[in-house]
Amino acid sequence: ISPSAVAPGICESAWCGEAIKCKRVATAMATVFPTDQAIVVGGGLAGMSAANTVLEHGGKVVLLDKSSFCGGNSTKATSGINGAETKTQKNKGIDDTIELFTSDTLKGGAKRPDVVKVLCGNSGADVDWLVEKFNLDLSLVARLGGHSAPRTHRGKERFPGMTITYALIQMLEKVAEKTDKARIITKAKA
């Protein structure tokens, strides 16, 4: 993970509004922190996705969570995960686009169009990654409130958020148990 990997995604989109400061921090961090290692804060779906992505690209990762176990609020999701232009949608003949998902999300009241563009633009590939990398069943697709097309993916289980998040936790735990490439620290304090 280099400053160019961190800074462009955050700084050039100006998510924080402090692009120059952020790029300096990323550059300074790279000089003192090994570029093939990452610290991930939070053990929910986002944190687990980040940690597994670091491993997928050959890096080492330490994941910190303040709770006594990982999972976060992601495990409580009961509807599924949204994605546009997924392989599952294509296989089922569902006509959906990133542009339509973006429009629906903005109509729903999202206040950060730049973030919505990234979220919706990556959503299909992200859902496909979960299916392929973690062998998840996300074969059921439904149209839920606020969506113009069926794009909420889930499997046959009752709690898709828990199923999805735990698959990522299990993968990270396996790596942590067998190698020095991953470490999970729970009950972490600031």
Describe the structure.
The protein has 190 residues and is mainly alpha-helical. It is 48% helix and 12% strand. The protein contains seven helices and six strands; from the N terminus they run ααβαββαααββαβ. The protein has a three-stranded parallel beta sheet. α3 (45-56) links the parallel β1 and β2. The protein is globular.
Tell me briefly what this model is.
With 190 residues, the chain is mainly alpha-helical. The chain has helices at 3-12, 19-32, 45-56, 87-91, 98-107, 113-134, 160-178; strands spanning 37-41, 60-64, 81-82, 140-142, 152-154, 182-185.
What order do the helices and strands come in, and which of them pair?
Blueprint: H1 3-12, H2 19-32, E1 37-41, H3 45-56, E2 60-64, E3 81-82, H4 87-91, H5 98-107, H6 113-134, E4 140-142, E5 152-154, H7 160-178, E6 182-185
